[in-house]
Every structure is written in structure tokens, then in C-alpha cells.
Write a structure and sequence with these properties.
This protein is 58% helix and 15% strand. It is α+β, with helices and mostly antiparallel strands. The protein starts with a helix and ends with a strand.
Length: 457
């Protein structure tokens, strides 16, 4: 009997200790953020523990189906097995624990409320926007201040960071303008070469803006390459035309030979016809044999056939000469049309390059001159103290604006807006128009950024 009594006393002591531990966990979770009790909101993640002392069995029963982690939903509630929807928004962890215990008594029919503890395992995030290095959503931790939140967001956006960005933009802009200028020079050289081909000139007349920069190896190589292309294309065309003209001369000589052959055959035909006439007279008088007449007729027919073949060859030769003339003309006209099309395309590319170059020069001017000048005027203003504003959702769902300082406490779900006051003349810092900046097109502009002089070609 004493053993049973001692066992019950031990279980009661364990029950008291467990209840005290659960109560202490609830108290710690509700006071972790500030001195005042923390109220739950959407995206908060909580852990629920439900235990019950069952005296009939002299044991502690754990509600395993309920003991788990839950996230407060957008509707402000959590959904539990056996219990259903439990409101959590606007309540402390202890209040939610009491609500769960009461709901279990009603839904399951318990004689008394089970021991329930609710602890916060993950707070809803906070947000930082404005003049910070990295704005966005960040995980919350208890005791967070505005200054700590600012450090999590990377600190204030500094002028040096923007200077570095403008330096990169200047370097990239200079590279873009240089590449466009090189492309323009290449197109100008090609245009000069095409014009020389079109006019059948013996050499290329490059524009002064190219010939004046031949001391530059890149420009010298451009002109050399175009001259080599011009020479190769001219020699190729001349070779083809020369071959066709050689064929034409050969055909003309062949025609001359055929014409001479026709003259010879005409004479041969005339001689055979005279002899045939004489022999035919003798055959009629009986003074010559008929086979002799037949032999002359066959010879005359053979020579006439040879003359017809020669005449056909003469006509075919004249036709080949006409084809050769047409091939020479087609070759020359084809090259002319090809050069004309290439010249038109080159001019179109030159116009596009000119427009792109002007745009690149203006962007480079913006990065090298206007923007650093604006930053220089903004430097003094940025020395002013930042303005911190906290946007917090109240219990009734309204958003409240709170003017804060660096030591102000942050709560989960807060949005911290960081602003830096600007100088009074800030809005007029970039009123220079592009036309005023480019009153002298082609003039090399100079700008200073980050202590370096930058040339804008």
C-alpha cells in the first residue's frame, strides 16, 4: 500500500514539474520579443504541446495528434485535428493555449482542461525598403532594433557604391564608343573600295578621316586589307574576262579558217561541175563511158556535203562568239550589280552606326559628366541623418506609421522605410539638355570621375 502511495506521489510531483515547465515555456515565448506580451500574426510558426494527467492509469498522456508545429494562416487562424479552426491573430501564446484547452474539453468531452503549452518557433519576417544596399524581406529575431535591421539590409546606400557603378559605366561606354568607331572606320574603308570597283578605278581613294590615322596600326591594317581585297577581286574579274576574250579570239580564228575552207570548197565544186559538164557531153556523143560521169557526180556531192558541214560549223562558231560576248557582259554587269547592292547595304550600316555612336556618346556623357556632378551636389545632403519610419499593422487591421530612431525596437511583420533628405536644388541638377551638351559635334569632351580624367571620343 505504501509503495502504491509513493508511486502516486511521484507521478503527482512529475505532473507538477511538467506543468510548471510548460507554463514557463509559454511565459518565455510570450515575453521573448519585448517586455509586453507578443501577439501572434500571419506567418508566425508555433509549436503546440498538449499533455494530460490520467489518475486512473497513474500516467501522463501525450496528445500526439496535436503535438506539432503550425503556421498561422492568412485568415489569422490555425487548423488542429479534433479541434478545428482556432483564432491566433491578436492573441498571445498563452491565450491560444487556453483556447486550445477549452476547445479540447468541448470537442472530446474531457472532465477537465488538459495542460497545453504554445511556444513560438519562428517569427514572421520584417521588411526594409528605401535607401539601403539590399531591400527586401528578412527573418526576424527577438530584440531587433532599427540599427540592427539596417545592418542586415547591408547598411545605407553609399555614394562610393554609386561612384563605382558610374566608373564601370564609363569604362563600358568608352569600350562601346571605341568599337562603334572601329566599325564605322571599317565600313568607310569598305565603301571606298566598293566605289573604286564600281568606277573601275585603278586604286582606292580612302577618305581623309582614315588616311589621317594611318599611324594607328589598326587603321593601317584596315586600309591594307581593303586594298588586298580590291586587288584580288579586280584580278579575279580581269582573269575571267581575259579567259572569255581569249575564247572569243580563238573562235574568230576558227571562223576565219572555216571561211577560207568555204572558198576552197566553192572552187573545188566549180571545177568538178565544169568537168562533169564536159564528161556528160562526151557521154551523150558516145565518146566517154558512163561510169566516169557517175564518179564525178559522187565527188561533187561529197564536196557539197563538206561545204554544208563547214558552213554549219561557221554558223555555230558565230553563235559561240555571241555567247562569249554575252558571258563577258553578264560577268561585268553581275559584278556591277553586286557592288551596287553591297554599297547600298554598307551605306545603311554606316547610317545605323552613326546613330548608335551618337547614342553611346550621350550615354557616356551622362555617366562621365552629369551623374558624377549630381552625386557631388548630393554628397553634403547625404551627410544628414537618415529618416526611419516603421509601418506596423495594428490589432484592428489598420497600418500605423511610427517615426523611429536607430534604437527603436522592431516587431515581426514591420516594414522599415529608410529615407535620406536631398538638397533643395537636387531636382534641377540635370536640367542641361543634350543639345546644349553637344553644341560642337565631334569635339572631344573631357570629364572627371572618381579622380580620373575620361575622354569621350
Amino acid at each position: 500500500m505504501d509503495t502504491l502511495t509513493n508511486r502516486r506521489d511521484a507521478w503527482r510531483l512529475l505532473h507538477v514539474v511538467l506543468s510548471a515547465g510548460l507554463g514557463l515555456a509559454c511565459m518565455l515565448s510570450t515575453s521573448a520579443v519585448n517586455a509586453k506580451e507578443y501577439v501572434l500574426g500571419p506567418q508566425d510558426k508555433i509549436r503546440i504541446k498538449v499533455y494530460e494527467w490520467r489518475a486512473s492509469r497513474d500516467t501522463i498522456f501525450a496528445w500526439a495528434a496535436l503535438n506539432d508545429e503550425y503556421t498561422v494562416g492568412p485568415n489569422g487562424s490555425i487548423s488542429l485535428p479534433l479541434v478545428g479552426e482556432i483564432k491566433a491573430v491578436g492573441l498571445t501564446a498563452g491565450q491560444v493555449a487556453n483556447s486550445i484547452g477549452d476547445s479540447l474539453m468541448k470537442s472530446v468531452g474531457l472532465a477537465r482542461k488538459p495542460n497545453t503549452a504554445v511556444e513560438i518557433v519562428q517569427f514572421r519576417p520584417f521588411y526594409v525598403v528605401g535607401k539601403v544596399t539590399q531591400s527586401g524581406e528578412f527573418p526576424y529575431r527577438p530584440g531587433l532594433t532599427v540599427l540592427q535591421a539596417l545592418s542586415i539590409a547591408g547598411g545605407l546606400r553609399t555614394r562610393e557604391d554609386r561612384d563605382a557603378r558610374f566608373e564601370r559605366e564609363v569604362i563600358q561606354g568608352q569600350g562601346d564608343v571605341s568599337l562603334l568607331r572601329l566599325s564605322e572606320a571599317s565600313l568607310l574603308a569598305r565603301k571606298a573600295r566598293l566605289e573604286a570597283e564600281l568606277s573601275h578605278a585603278s586604286d582606292i581613294q580612302f577618305p581623309t578621316q582614315l588616311t589621317s590615322r594611318t599611324q594607328d596600326d589598326v587603321f593601317a591594317m584596315l586600309l591594307k586589307q581593303e586594298r588586298l581585297i580590291f586587288q584580288a577581286r579586280s584580278e579575279g574579274l580581269d582573269t575571267q574576262v581575259k579567259a572569255l576574250r581569249g575564247l572569243r579570239e580563238f573562235l574568230q580564228k576558227e571562223l576565219a579558217s572555216l571561211e577560207a575552207q568555204l572558198v576552197f570548197l566553192d572552187k573545188q565544186i566549180g571545177s568538178i561541175q565544169k568537168e562533169l559538164t564536159a564528161v556528160s557531153t562526151l557521154v551523150v556523143k558516145g565518146l566517154a563511158a558512163a561510169p566516169r560521169e557517175f564518179s564525178l557526180e559522187r565527188a561533187l556531192a561529197q564536196v557539197q556535203s563538206e561545204r554544208l558541214s563547214a558552213e554549219t560549223s561557221l554558223l555555230r562558231g558565230r553563235q559561240e562568239i555571241s555567247k562569249t560576248d554575252i558571258s563577258i557582259l553578264a560577268l561585268q554587269e553581275g559584278r556591277k550589280n553586286e557592288v551596287t547592292i553591297d554599297l547600298r547595304q554598307t551605306q545603311a550600316e554606316l547610317d545605323a552606326i552613326e546613330s548608335k555612336t551618337e547614342t553611346a556618346r550621350r550615354l557616356l556623357y551622362e555617366s562621365a559628366v552629369s551623374a558624377p556632378a549630381l552625386l557631388a551636389r548630393r554628397a553634403d545632403a547625404e551627410l544628414a541623418a537618415p529618416i526611419y519610419t516603421i509601418f506596423r499593422l495594428s490589432a484592428d487591421g489598420a497600418t500605423v506609421q511610427i517615426q523611429a530612431n536607430e534604437t527603436s525596437a522592431i516587431e515581426p511583420g514591420d516594414t522599415i522605410k529608410v529615407e535620406i533628405p536631398l538638397a533643395a536644388d537636387e531636382t534641377g541638377a540635370l536640367d542641361l539638355t543634350l543639345s546644349e551638351r553637344h553644341k560642337a559635334p565631334g569635339l572631344e569632351l573631357k570629364a572627371e570621375t572618381a579622380g580620373n580624367t575620361v575622354g569621350i571620343p
